[in-house]
Amino acid sequence: MNIADLLTARAAASGEQAAVIDESGGRCRTLSFAELEQLVSRTAECLRAFGLRPGDPVLVLQPLSLELCVVLVAILRAGLVAVFIDPSAGLAHLDSCCRLTAPRAFIGSGKAHLLRFVSPGLRRIPMKWRTGTLVRRALATTRPTGNNPGSADLPPSAPALIRFTSGSTGAPKAAVRTHGFLVEQLRAIESNLHLEPGQIDLVTMPMFMLPNLAAGVTSIIPATDVRAPGRSDPVPLVRQIQERQVNRLTASPALFHRLADYCSQHGVYLDSLHRLDTGGAPVFPGLLDSLRRLAPQAEIVAVYGSTEAEPIALLRHDDISDADRQAMASGGGLLAGRPVPDLRVRLLREDTPPPGKPLTESGFAALAAPPGTPGEIVVSGPHVHPGQADVPGSDPSKIVVEDTVWHRTGDAGRFDETGRLWLLGRSCARIEDRRGVLHPFPLEAAVMTDGRVRHTALVAVHGRRLLVVQPSDPSHPPQVPEWVRSQVDEVRIMRHIPLDRRHNAKVDYVELRRSSHM
Known about the structure:
Elements: H1 5-14, E1 18-22, E2 29-32, H2 33-49, E3 57-61, H3 66-77, E4 81-84, H4 91-101, E5 105-108, H5 110-113, H6 120-123, E6 127-130, H7 131-141, E7 159-166, E8 172-178, H8 179-192, E9 200-203, H9 209-215, E10 218-221, H10 234-244, E11 248-251, H11 253-266, E12 275-279, H12 285-294, E13 299-306, E14 309-316, H13 322-329, E15 334-339, E16 344-348, H14 361-365, E17 375-380, E18 398-401, E19 404-415, E20 421-426, E21 431-433, E22 436-438, H15 440-448, E23 453-461, E24 464-471, H16 482-485, E25 490-493, H17 509-516
Parallel strand pairs: 1-10, 3-4, 3-5, 4-7, 5-6, 9-10, 9-11, 11-12, 12-13, 24-25
Antiparallel strand pairs: 1-2, 7-8, 13-14, 14-15, 15-20, 16-17, 17-19, 18-19, 19-20, 21-22, 23-24
Helix pairs in contact: 1-2, 1-9, 2-3, 2-7, 8-9, 10-11, 11-12
């Protein structure tokens, strides 16, 4: 098995259709599926010729681009392991990740290679190439032949990707993705997000490059930097959507807010868009309403998922009823929708400790939240990452039940009478004090029903319940419902609520608590 075989199959089926159109850097470059297949094959052969062997880790520091697409698939085809690190996490994080994985090669942009002057971890890597230089060398030194040497034949358990993130402690956390897991995840994304050959997708997240290639969807590389979506320039994106007749777009809520605000202010409608998917952070109905005005013809879907299980549940904008909106406005939480097929979702008591050993079905059932009560959301299915299931207790986010691995999302939720999932916020963010237990989303979702609110968050500071609210327009502060005020000790209006670096949409509770002390 090799995930790159999906591209080979798609190249045979889609041939001259454009696979990637890169309009970054002020120029336009296009590769058809057939051309991409040939370039990937030659780049993979070049990597093999330099002595890299299946299983060798290769560090990749390259922004979303045509080069990233070629290099990533070539690494997978050669049986190597692509390692991704967020450089914005700092040099200590970068060097720590290099120590943990000991990459055999480093492939990156010219700007990324400047980090070698200040990073001992990068300097220790034996082989180093600039992305464009490697691809040009592959074209110059590897002859195209009629017989493709093919992908490295690997077991489904062979690692394909390693992506490092930072937890709340700042310590690097490695998320390992195997070839088998990636195949299942791509199938889940393709079927549930309705990827179809011939669609044109403006790609704002690198993770969607592979599903698009496998499904025969043309990927448009944005003409602007989208790594900080809350600060991205919407003007080039609107131009690309209109000129390229883009018909689908998957993006973070922060980027969609930028697009919706711009289009509303300038009276722009994006009629070519037929599908909009947003997730990676809480998606409130107000944003979905804005997207309906932005793209009147589109199917608009909120996607709930996690790095370890994507997607978990889907919510179509058109399926949100007046009763659902009233429930969210009155403390019911945030509606996430119906769990996707082939996925099992259960609720555990929120105080459940890591079992530390495999459980029987009856032992697992004993951990379940009582019917009708909230609990921590746990999921199991073919596109749920199993972690190190063969090492019981090594991963506190996993529960092994006989032969089945369940992933603990860390999110609190509840089911309604129709089987839909409602989110209540992170389990670790719930407040337990003399007044009882309070989850954040019931209050936050209620406050977000006011269109004048951009962000809001509930935190405990020095034993007090603090609700902070960031207005969309500081000159027009919103009205916080009296029942919400009665649940907290203070409501504070803030000009800026700190958000995560990656999506610019999730509240950074650690930084918020620190700034709230001031």
